[in-house]
Fold:
Amino acid sequence: MGIWSQARDLAAATPDERNRYVDFLRAVSILVVITGHWLISALYYHDGSLTATSILVVQPSTHWLTWLFQVMPIFFIVGGYANAVSLESARRREIAYAGWLAARLNRLVTPLLVLVLGWALFAAILHFSGVSGAVIQLASRAALIPIWFLAIYIMVVVLAPATYIAWRRWGFASFWGLAAIGVLVDVAFFVADLRWLGWSNFFWVWLSVHHLGYAWRDGRMGSPARLLTYAALGFLALVLLVFKGPYPFAMAGSPDEGLSNTSPPKITLLALAITQCGLLLAIESPMRRMLSGLRVWTATALINSMIMTLYLWHLTIMMIVVALVYLAGGVGLGLEPGSSEWWFTRPVWIAVLYAVLLPVTLLLAPMERRARAADAAVPAAVRQVGGAALICFGVALLARFGFGNAPLPGLDVAATVMVIAGAGSSGLLPGFK
Structure:
């Protein structure tokens, strides 16, 4: 049976009570992220050498595109909704925290392990083949950009039962509490120059955005008119923060020297999240009617069945294609980034990358869909939380430094060991005691 037929059968069996719009937003967002990453990559082969930068740096007038392509807030909103549904289901079935967390970590970490171990092997092969550490680091850092999301989202999932309890007890007060901490951190960042404190906004900003998913699940976001009001207020706040405040214009990447809205996160992302949430939820009813059709819902279900694999591997695929093109004499990369010819060829560039990504995804996606064995032992909650923290720390190091020229000798090896040990401690590796 073909992959489309399998997805169609799965789609046809979807319960009526499932909110298909959640899955649709997740699927569309992942495609926007992938396309956006490929679009902003500015690669130029000239006189036998290849330069790699971002179109956001080459052509600052493109910064406005990041207001459209920065959709990570949607992932966290959808994640909040999905985690609320999952926690409610676990409570009905009397599944304890440890059992719930084991299932969530299995879906998130298994495809991540495949990518990390694949790159560890690839980096080792390149190293022993005489490739310089600088080249290995450049390629691996570019390819591993997507894993930063999991470094924080895994911890958001670990904390989800506690934050959901806070939401059910205090409602929007819990959201505003997290948002207020995020605001204070930004004040300390800009006014007191406490740059190190800014990194804590990986929690405060994204946890507050995640809370919007709880509000959506509980039907607390209001009518379309109210949602559009929220969107307008969020957009107004975003405009004021950027044009009257100290925040950079670009909502993704770091084209502004020394300052970024994402690394570490700023409250501009919360304002953007409120804007996106208001606009997207305002059209939820007609979108859910559209998704009642089997064809559109089948496509949505198909993408969601391999969504982590698509996301995690899309930049690795780009690195492989670029390497092959470079070895072939730079064919197709000789157009100067930002030129009209370069822009006209972007659809071809993106189509080629999708053509390579899709078969690789179909090959690796079964790992993502692999469920925990029904009789598998569930590690203690404290062990899983410790393992998850170890995974996130190792992943954060790899996302920041890649493989190769790390600031400390063997840091990449240590980070890989952290990920493996964390996965083992969380019960995700067979035979790991």
Q: What stands out?
A: The CA atoms of residues 223 and 388 lie 38 Å apart. The longest helix spans residues 97-128. The chain has one domain: 19-425. Strands lie at 41-46, 49-54.
